[in-house]
Each structure stands twice: as C-alpha cells, then as structure tokens.
Amino acid sequence: MATPGSGFWSFGSEDGSGDPENPGTARAWCQVAQKFTGGIGNKLCALLYGDSEKPAASSGSEPPRATSRKATCACDQKPCSCPKADVNYAFLHATDLLPASDGERPTLAFLQDVMGILLQYVVKSFDRSTKVIDFHYPNELLQEYNWELGDQPQNLEEILMHCQTTLKYAIKTGHPRYFNQLSTGLDMVGLAADWLTSTANTNMFTYEIAPVFVLLEYVTLKKMREIIGWPGGSGDGIFSPGGAISNMYAMLIARFKMFPEVKEKGMAAVPRLIAFTSEHSHFSLKKGAAALGIGTDSVILIKCDERGKMIPADLERRILEAKQKGFVPFLVSATAGTTVYGAFDPLLAVADLCKKYKIWMHVDAAWGGGLLMSRKHKWKLSGVERANSVTWNPHKMMGVPLQCSALLVREEGLMQSCNQMHASYLFQQDKHYDLSYDTGDKALQCGRHVDVFKLWLMWRAKGTTGFEAHIDKCLELAEYLYNIIKNREGYEMVFDGKPQHTNVCFWYVPPSLRVLEDNEERMSRLSKVAPVIKARMMEYGTTMVSYQPLGDKVNFFRMVISNPAATHQDIDFLIEEIERLGQDL
C-alpha cells in the first residue's frame, strides 16, 4: 500500500506512470497546480510528468517526497516556514489538530495531504486508462483490511492511509465509461461547492444559522417553479434527501389537502385512500404509502403501452373502479422519465383526468426533470405545469453531486400547514427578522443538509444554456448508441423506436444463441447473458452498465447517459467491450 507523502501523488495510469498519450492534459493540470501553496503544486507537477518529463515552470531539483512517517515540505524557501515543516504524522493524532493549542500547522499540513489524495482521485476519474472499478468481493475486502472500530485512537499517518484505501476501492462514478446509474459524472464546480458546504457545516432549519443558504434555496426553488411553468414561480418547495422522500412528501401533502384532520387524528379518521401510478413507476410510491400508513395495496398500478407510458384509458377505468368500491382516489403520480425505459407519461391526458375527478396530480420527474432546461426536449414534459407537485432531481440528469432533490408544490403555504409543529426552541415568533425564511418547520426533518449550494453555484457557472448543452449532448449520445445497435448483428432492442430519454434498452445475443428458435429455452439462456457480461465488466474494471428484467422480458441491458464527459468513442468502446466479454457465452 502507498504511504502518505509518496504513493498517493502518482497520477495517470494505474501504475502511476502518467498519461503518455496526452501530455497536454498533464501540462494543463500542472499549470493549475502551481497555484496551490505548501508545496502541493510542485508535487503535483513532478508526479504528473514522472521523472522523465517536467514542465519549465517546475525546473530545478525534484522536490523531496515525504516519507511514510513525516510530512516533508516541497517549497523552495530555505529555511522552510511552510505548514508541513517538521510535521510527523506517525506521532500525531486528531487531538493535535485544531482546535488544539498550536494545532494550526499540523492541521494545514494534514488537510493539504488529504487534498492531495482527493486531487489524485479527481484526475484519475477522467483518465480512460484507469479502471472504473477495482472490484473485490465483500469477504475479500473484509479480510484484506481491518475495518473494525477500536477504543484507542490511530495516528494521522494511518488516517491518511484509510483515506487512500477507501478511494482505491471506490467506484469512479465520474469516469467517462461509467454508465451504471442515473447519477453519473463529477462536476468540478459542484465538487467545490460540496467541499464548501461541508466546511460551513450548518443546518437548514432557520435563517439565523444559514442565512445565505436559506436565501439561495428560496431563489433556486422559485427559478425551478418558473421553469415548470407556474406563474411567476409561485408556490413552495424544499430540497429533500432524494427522490423517494420527495415523492413521499407529495403523497403526504396530497392527503393533507384532501383530509387535513389526518394530521391530528391519523388514518382512522379518513376513508380508504387510493393512489395511482404506472406499472413502470419508481418503487418509492409504494414505499411512501407503506411509511404513511396508506398501505401498498392502496397503490394501484396502471397499465403501460409498449414504450412504457401510462395508458390514460386504464387510469380512468381504475379510478372509477375505486370510487364504485367506496374508496377515495387522492393522488395520481405520473412519471416523466421512468427508471428503466425512460418513458414520459402523457401528462396532459393525466391532468385532464385529475381535473375531472378532483385528484391531486403529482409528476415524478426525478429523472426527466432536467429536460425542462432544454428547448429541444422540454416538450416531452408538456402538461407538467398543470401538476400540483413535481419531484425533480438535479443530481441525476443535470450532474449535480449527490444528493440534490427538490419537491416543488404549486400551492404556497400547504407544506407549512401540513408539517409544522411550532417547536418554540427553534421557531420563536418574536425574532427580529422575516420569519418566512425560517423554513425548517415545513420539513419532516429537523436537521437538514445544505443541498442547494451545489446546484446554485453550478447554475451560476454554467447558466441555463450550459445545462441545456449538457442535456442535449447526453440525449444525442443515446441516439448515437441506438442508431449503431438497432441493426447490428447480435443486438435486439427491447422496444421499437428511438428512446425519448437517454435510456437505451437492449439484449446482446451471443453467436451461440443467434441460431436458436425464439422459445423458452432461448429466453432462459438469454437471461443469463447480461449478468455474466456485467460481472466480467466489473472484474476487468473497464466499464459498468446496468441490467434488469422487466415484466415478461428477461434480463436486458439498460444503458443511461448523464455524464457530459462521455463521448462517441466511449459509446463505441462499450459496444466493443460487450461483444468481447460476451462472444463466448
């Protein structure tokens, strides 16, 4: 294992030799690195280039590297006065860092070395010669390292080694060939914002302890409501811990809107409530129903067409059935970008039915909401402006670092009425500022993480046009993949026609199965192909893409693209890799 001050400064390929095919990249990173203090810049340059090539800006003798026991400086000033002078991690512990007396120097040295580990990981995340994953089975990792917690403190040398080890086995979700989840990519401005958020380390419940963050949440949610199409951005909203919680918020508020007495008296005071969502919708709707005491049996799944879109005629039929049984339909959750097919439910038709039967309309746009930023693709969410609430996850299609999920509500004040508990030790009514900015009482949580700053700072850095370019590029890459494989030997599409989102669903059929008749035996054998190829991808560490069965369809690949670092060449690589890993099956 590499030790602090030595191995963790190796960049480029897995052997630390750099990227010989792209010296310009190393030079560019080196120029940026020169701005770091405390010797970090010189270390980065020396090890980006290796021993054989160094930029003119870092000429002279190679800066000394720290041993495994001492953080030696790399500055050019002698005698040295930088923070890393005479800092020996082997004899230091967390109690020697700030707020300890004389803790400033070891603190700065320690954090600079942590930053070095992080910067190495960032650079490698975009290096195609590095692995997406260094896969080990759980029992192997458990046996290889001692992960147990002890009574006695470890020294800072060991703490830095833990940081290295953790990132060594982390999945590089920012890698251009990581396609496994809806949330991919690593945005530099978003990353910086996340670091700042952790440094500020505050809570979102009142203005008095998070003044800027509370104002930024107000501004950002208003802008998102404007983009949805609500006049003047009116309404309400909150950032929550993921789309599942945002969807549960919508269900909670919809129930309160229809039966406000449920807040005090519980489900015993209301009739049997029924929610409706498509059979391709996210499982969080049922989870929310279970958590709220509504029950999973009270979530009716509506049939979808062959492209995965909710069928409005079946929705109306099931609404009438529920009403005939004496049940009360209270929520329809339409999906804008289903998890597997990337389908967009017909929101206008759903809105008409919700208006007709006086039912709350929610749109789960966790995955598809980002398309509202694109003039080319926002038509796919036509009708979203008629919704009562919308879930929108910027940490998916917009590339904001996890987590960043918003629940937007059209009616202002409803969230507050639904959730407030008037905790007098937080929400005093005689404060000297506008109490409407104490937003914590409308949340289910008390402690709430600052999730808005990442999105706000990225929006400032990119502008709406930058997000639009990001989204348009990802959609174009999905169409590129579809056009390549739709008529390629060995590939079968799960559904006909080009995808509406970046989801491209297909089977890879190895040569041994191409001659078989389309029968049960072929389907049984085909179902084993995707899992084996996925396992081989992870063993080699070359790429990652998801697979799953759906309904009567056996395991198929679901390719999704949300990382703007991906290119046509990465799509070509994925196709070739699937064929390489699956041709013998």
TrEMBL record:
Family to which this protein belongs: Belongs to the group II decarboxylase family.
Enzyme superclass (EC): lyase
Gene Ontology molecular function terms on file: glutamate decarboxylase activity; pyridoxal phosphate binding
Location within or outside the cell: Cytoplasm, Cytosol; Cytoplasmic vesicle; Golgi apparatus membrane; Presynaptic cell membrane
Organism domain of life: Eukaryota
Gene name in the database record: GAD2
Listed Pfam families: Pyridoxal_deC
GO cellular component terms attached to this protein's record: cytoplasmic vesicle; cytosol; Golgi membrane; presynaptic membrane
The organism's taxonomic lineage, starting at the top: Eukaryota, Metazoa, Chordata, Craniata, Vertebrata
Alphabetic keyword roster: Cell membrane, Cell projection, Cytoplasm, Cytoplasmic vesicle, Decarboxylase, Golgi apparatus, Lipoprotein, Lyase, Membrane, Neurotransmitter biosynthesis, Palmitate, Phosphoprotein, Pyridoxal phosphate, Synapse
Membrane topology note: Peripheral membrane protein; Lipid-anchor
Coiled coil residues, start to end: none
Name of the protein in question: Glutamate decarboxylase 2
UniProt keyword RNA-binding present: no
Subunit structure: Homodimer.
Role played: Catalyzes the production of GABA.
InterPro entries on file: PyrdxlP-dep_de-COase, PyrdxlP-dep_Trfase, PyrdxlP-dep_Trfase_major, Pyridoxal-P_BS
EC numbers on record: 4.1.1.15
Keyword Heme among record annotations: no
Cofactor requirements of the protein: pyridoxal 5'-phosphate
Main location: cytoplasm
GO BP terms in the entry: gamma-aminobutyrate shunt; gamma-aminobutyric acid biosynthetic process
Chain residue ranges for the region called Disordered: 1-25
Modification N6-(pyridoxal phosphate)lysine occurs at: 396
